[in-house]
Amino acid sequence: MSGRVVIYTDGCALGNPGPGGFGAVLMFGKHRLELSEGFDLTTNNRMELLAVIRALQSLKHADLPIDIYSDSKYVCNAITEGWLFNWHRKGWKNVKNPDLWKQMLPLYTRFKPRFHWVKGHSGVPENERCDQLANQAALLPVKQKDVGYLPTAKLL
Predict the structure, then answer these.
(1) Which residues are catalytic?
(2) How far apart (Å, rounded) are the C-alpha atoms in residues 48 and 57?
(3) pLDDT tens, 93-110?
(4) Which of 19, 63, 110, 116 sits most deeply, having the most CB atoms within 10 A of its CB?
């Protein structure tokens, strides 16, 4: 096999937190796969990260170069600035969304994707499609539970 896997991802939470979803578009040569899932209560950052996780989990081969395009600086900077590795080294202390980052680390180690930040809502067709998929998933009448999301209890 030769070529490059190109992945676009996006996530949303309506109300943040609120109903949310993610979308991902994976392309390899003439092949294209679109993924999306909706959740009843979550955050935007969780969906941005989950989009990348689900996209990488869908891959069968770890020997191809992979480029991931995301409009989330939270996700991109965690990799490109080395935050993910520091969080791991420090035992995930004071890290938001540790359940998802713990899933991301072995996927990153296995696939070694390159991350690229793209400006959201700037006309990049695949990023726009991911946004559409994420929002459609967030609006589904029946969605999954984001079991890793624990909203902060409000004291009365």
Answers:
(1) 10-11, 48, 71, 121, 131
(2) 15
(3) 999 999 999 999 999 999
(4) 19
